[in-house]
Amino acid sequence: MNDSRPLSILQEVFGYGAFRGAQAEIVDHVTGGGDALVLMPTGGGKSLCYQVPAIARHRARQGVTVVVSPLIALMHDQVGALEEAGVHAAFMNSTLDTEQYLFVERELTSGRLVMLYAAPERVTNPRFLAQLDSLHERGLLSLFAIDEAHCVSQWGHDFRSEYLALSLLHERYADVPRIALTATADDITRADIIERLKLDEARVFISSFDRPNIRYAIVEKDDPRRQLLRFIREEHEDEAGVVYCQSRKKVEETAQWLAAEGLKALPYHAGLDSAVRQKHQDRFLREDGIVMVATVAFGMGIDKPDVRFVAHLDLPKNIEGYYQETGRAGRDGGASNAWMTYGLADVVNQRRMIDESPAEEDFKIVQRGKLDALLALAEATDCRRVRLLSYFGEASQPCGNCDNCLQPPATWDATDAARKLLSCIYRFHQHGGRRFGAGHLIDVLRGKQTDKVAQFNHESLSTFGVGADLSEQQWRAVLRQLIALGHVVAEGEYHTLALTDSARAVLKGEVHLLLREASERPKRGAKTGRSGSATKTSSKAKVEAMDLDAAAEQRFDALKSWRAEVAKEHGLPAYVIFQNVTLAEMARQHPQSLDDLAGISGVGAKKLEAYGRELLRVLEAG
Ligand code: ADP
Ligand code: ZN
Predict the structure, then answer these.
(1) Ligand 1 centre from 48 Cα, in Å?
(2) Which of 106, 116, 372, 396 is most open to solvent, judged by the fewest CB atoms within 10 Å of its CB?
């Protein structure tokens, strides 16, 4: 049982059959004492890249691995997961009381620990360094793993000054190998990580950023809350998900509304009391089927594997943000959805936030460029994934798993409509020099007799009624596209519209505009609301997706209740005991012996020993 070959460890300790993607190469390199910088998307499997080397090196009597992570709130569960798998681990952060601290310290100095998780500020603590010195002198300091490595860079989005001190590890223990890992790093950030952590000698492993199990969909905003509710009911009844909103107020309102509709929805934002935040996060991690409605404050390190959907009710700032947030879905590799509603107001708001921010002009130019890329993604009529990946510098083929691939949107030629719209804004300007917002503009184009039309005598404009053939929604889409493309700006408190220099080319007919056909009401909209039958169909569809027949479904439910008990007893989230995919596989295969059970992915030696007999009993009874 003391095999220190990585593949044996993967199978024995974690119960997995094979390494994924670059894992094998990374693990070999680090186990052999090399430095590494690992860039892998969320859910790619970064943890095993340092956990397996840590175990291998500990078994080879090379001592303890120190894992530096800023995610204090998660350390307890991470360590719990390792102990469940039979790996001796502990953490050191400000949440320990003296007695606990002294215990961890003893385990550390003895060299018995395989992994120690520590917050970055430990590294500047003299007492802690003295312990590392002592381990180092005895040849028992095996490896440093630096998680969330982008935190060292000011270019990243989560800069933490404590991370700067981590260069000390290399200066003090030059012979101890280091592995740094992150899911987000563009070229500048990457270079910065290498420089600041002194990883010049490190091998850099960059994985594809594709998340094939996530289905991307972006829908036009119509009645966003109802659209959201329908999406959750039809595709994710009783499943865990995150709904992102821009403001705290909207988070509160949306969570309340979903809860009133009968969903287990909780709010999360920086304005909540930290105890409440912690409680909501714990419930999200520990209970099944919680929908967390949150601002971006909820995010980094949410390593719950079975988040089935991420929904955006507001447009993020850029593609990096969008990709990071949606990336929290489906870490377990199971089918998941990234769903966003987006409309004219999003475009106007995001543009305005940049324009009105106090930042320097060149910073704003960068931000506008990033927003443009996101808007182009939202308006795209071709594969969303191809666009996402190309944004990160990866070439790919249409994916077959995004809304545009699955249901290629109809397009219409809006070149003429765009010209009419622009010339109408131009006429407003000529006719009295005033500016107007979208509502009035569309009324004039459609030839509506309103008070405002009468007040400004806009019937006399040559553009009055020239667009009666298009619906209001179509006009909104044209305007949104023109704002997205930067030909029109919406300014001031009333979002009044003005032309930009580039509008001239459109007016001259030099710019061809192909728009998505305004999306119709959803095809499945026939199902009205929350009747019992609609609920049943959807949960059935879900079970079918896991390929379980009725008997297996029963076993699955029995296993889940058993797991809930154990998790509660151990004070850990359910997925730490076994993930859903593992339980589903047990339910499907219905193993009759411990040997059969051992063959199931996710069942390691320790868990087999601890839970095997009980599992067989539960499977029999279920
Ligand atoms: P990351 O930290 O990169 O977001 P994790 O390390 O949390 O990803 O891994 C994501 C999920 O994939 C986890 O549920 C993990 O158990 C699973 N996983 C990782 N590597 C493997 C593998 N080789 N075989 C099976 N499952 C794996
Ligand atoms: Zn696609």
Answers:
(1) 7
(2) 106
